[in-house]
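Q: I have 105 residues here and want to know how they pack in 3D. Can you give me a structure?
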Amino acid sequence: FSSSGCLFHHQYPVGYKARIDQWERSFLMEIRSDPKFSKPIFYVTNEQTGVSKFGDSPTKPWTEWCLFRKTGQRISGPLFFGFSDPITIKLLTTCKTKTIKQSKR
């Protein structure tokens, strides 16, 4: 889940992937595990160039892309990753519930 200081709390499942088109480019967003610190790392990769930006929150790699492209924009990482979408939230909650039930067998 997102940190306790966040206004909205989101599940951050390791292995999650999503795509979005921005600046006439396709970006792959991924959540990977950081075995060193036992927390998720958020990657945003330009699929045309293969260049990735990453950080410890979903907003950090998007901030890096905005700075790199000198857009002057601010992007909501959770929104772009899909964590503000009710359908995505429901699917993630359903998957999490099924995983918990299966592990109890």
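Q: Anything worth noting?
A: The CA atoms of residues 31 and 97 lie 19 Å apart. The helical segments are 59-69, 77-81, 86-103.
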